[in-house]
Amino acid sequence: MSGADVPVPRRPSDAAWDLAFLRVGLLATLAVTAVACVVMGVLSSWADALSVVVGAAVVSVFFGVSGLVVTWAGRVHDSYTLPAALGTFMVKMLLLVAVLRALPEDGWVDLRVLGWTVVVGALLWSVVQARWVWTKPLYYVTPPAPPTPAAMPDPGARSARAQGPGTDPETPTTRG
Questions:
Q1: What DSSP letter does each residue of 89-103 carry, written as one string?
Q2: 94-131 pLDDT, tens digit each
Q3: In whole angstroms, what is the distance from residue 84 CA to residue 27 CA?
Q4: Which 3 state secondary structure label does DSSP give 9?
């Protein structure tokens, strides 16, 4: 075997870090937000419907930023994902608290509607991520590379036992 034929072992950071859940989460958020806006606009007010849009945007941005940061960290090395996720969460929470404290209580954004939208949106995104993880084939150990055509056995070759009694490695004395 030449040096070019030696397989290179994969590093943990070679794992496929996928952001496909972001598209699904955004589409689900758009659908739920559209329905919630109409319901809030008809039952309460159109200002409350706008609060739903703001809340949905906040949740989508939060999950999008988290996905991007954790994916970036995972591509560098798997051990960086937890600190990246926790650090990103802390920074986002500090920013959210600062923004919510800066909003006036009687402003155009209804803080109660915004809060419930964030809660429902976070639950929706959590379900999307959970479903994505449950349906994606994730391996604990990297599967072996498929065999090369040169390494595959010849399907027409017969085993020593199938070639007849003259080539049988076991003799009558060893069979017992």
A1: HHHHHHHHHHHHHHS
A2: 998 998 888 888 888 898 999 999 999 999 999 999 99
A3: 25
A4: coil
- Cα 40 to the chain's mean position, in Å? 32
CA atoms within 13 A on the CB side of 173: 0
Non-local CB neighbours of 155 within 8 Å, separated by 6+ positions = none
The closest alpha carbon to 7, from 139, 151, 153, belongs to 151
Place of tokens 């994916």: 71
Beta-carbon contacts of 140 under 8 Å, excluding residues fewer than 6 positions away, are none
CB 51 within 8 A of CB 114: yes
Residue type, 58: V
pTM of the full structure: 0.67
